[in-house]
Design goal:
Elements (H helix, E strand, L loop, with lengths): L28 H17 L12 H14 L11 H8 L3 H13 L8
Length: about 110
Amino acid sequence: MSQTVRFPNHPRSRREKVFGPARGIPLDGNAKARLKVYVRGYNASHKQPGQHHGPITRAGMDVFEALPWGFHNSKTGLCFPSYEAIAEKARCCRDTVHEAIKALEAANILSQTT
């Protein structure tokens, strides 16, 4: 007897699978500056009592600024630095980079796939 296997409904949507070369979003200097202003505005509007900056810390802002201005290719839109390279550019440790990227992804500012 054959039985059909049913999988439970997932509460979260699944990420799109990307095979082959990654798709990038080309950004010029003005677009990168608008992203920086957006992140500052997000931080100000989501600030809780007891937080100095907001959900994205000063180190998180340093990590964010290192990505578009230090590693993002403006023509192809690709950005694939290592945690160590980001940490060196943002002048912080690798663990701080990990936490900052987690916070930026939670705020829907960064994503691992485009």
